[in-house]
Amino acid sequence: MMWKDSYRLGVERIDNQHMELFHMTENLVNAVENGASVEVYQEILGFLKDYVIYHFKDEEAYQASIHYSGLEDHRKEHQQFTQTVLNYEKLLTENGFNNKTMKDLAGVVTTWLIYHVTDSDQKIVSQEENSSKEKFFDRYVDLFSSSVLDVMWTMAALDPGNAQVCVSSPSELQGELFVKIQLMGDLKGDAVFGFSKGLALNLLQSMTGMELTELDELVQSALCELTNISCGNAATALTQRGLCCDISTPVVCQDFVCQVDGASVHINTDSGCLSISILGELPQ
Ligand SMILES: [Fe+2]
After folding, report:
1. What is the reported pLDDT for 83?
2. Rounded distance, CA 186 to CA 243, Å?
3. Ligand 1 mean position, distance from CA 191 (Å)
4. Beta carbons within 8 Å of 266's beta carbon, 6+ residues apart
5. Residue 22 has pLDDT above 50, yes or no
6. Selected residue with higher pLDDT from 53 and 5
């Protein structure tokens, strides 16, 4: 039997698919060694191709759901192998299903599969084990801060290239105007944005062309909307990565309860400062 228990990743769905792939490869090896009919070769190759495509898609979705940093490189490995199988299929279709080419294919599939499952695929789970709570939150706060910088750049021509982002503590969130948005779904908690008065007024001046001096209702409402758009973009990005995330209507808050789990960044720009905290519960 080709499959070995040491090939397991510990993710049941993926392990079962790998087992099935090894089973198919074993059938392929048996067929080429015993010299099967063209019909049998066609059937095995058809199953293998379809299953490879289905499995790679599923495995990549899993990697996205755990925010695996090596997803893009891993996807390329999958694409190259899929292309190899498709090239063999073309060759066999054009030149006839012969034992020699089928043996070449069986050798390539066997070696690639074992190497890929024991090396590349194992890296997916080793990263997952190393992901601490902190790292999860760090990734979220990065996502929310890049979203808000993008929006400020688009709406107020505030250059994100000049922004300095430093990690800070949720208990030291700074600002003169705080906007809080509730996160719902897999990521439960609050995203809190602390705007310095300077940044708030500069943003509004850039957006309206008017010189404002107070953090009045107009400023508050505009920054709530800016936060709403930014968090909406971040939530969409999270959903694309396989995490269900929804947001509430933003509210201006004077103070907020600092929870134990969370991450914060402090962003210095030429126009003023912004602190961002993501506080709450980890996705299950
Ligand atoms: Fe893989």
Report:
1. 94
2. 6
3. 34
4. 165, 166, 167, 168, 174, 273, 274, 275
5. yes
6. 53
Q: How far is the CA of 43 from the centre of ligand 1 (A)?
A: 23
CATH 3.60.10.10 fits 133-281, yes or no: no
Smallest Cα–Cα separation from 232: which of 218, 219, 248, 221?
A: 248
Dihedral-angle region of residue 168 (phi above 0 means left; psi in -120 to 50 means alpha; beta otherwise)? beta
pLDDT in tens, 177-202: 999 999 998 888 889 999 999 999 99
* Closest C-alpha to 207, from 258, 264, 157: 157
For residue 166, the CA-to-ligand 1 centroid distance in Å is 35
Query: Which CATH architecture is the domain 5-130 placed in?
Result: Up-down Bundle (1.20)
Ligand 1 center to 276 CA (angstroms): 35
The rounded distance, in Å, linking the Cα atoms of 208 and 130 is 47
Alpha-carbon span 195 to 117, nearest angstrom: 48
Ligand 1 centre and the CA of 179: distance in Å?
Answer: 42
Helices 217-240 and 197-208: angle between axes, nearest 10 degrees: 90
pLDDT score of 284 more than 50? no
What's the pLDDT tens digit per position in 62-106?
888 888 888 998 999 999 999 999 999 999 999 999 988 998 888
Tell me: pLDDT of 130 over 70. Answer: no
Domain boundaries, the chain: 5-130, 133-281
Instruction: Give 118 Cα–ligand 1 centroid separation in angstroms.
Output: 10
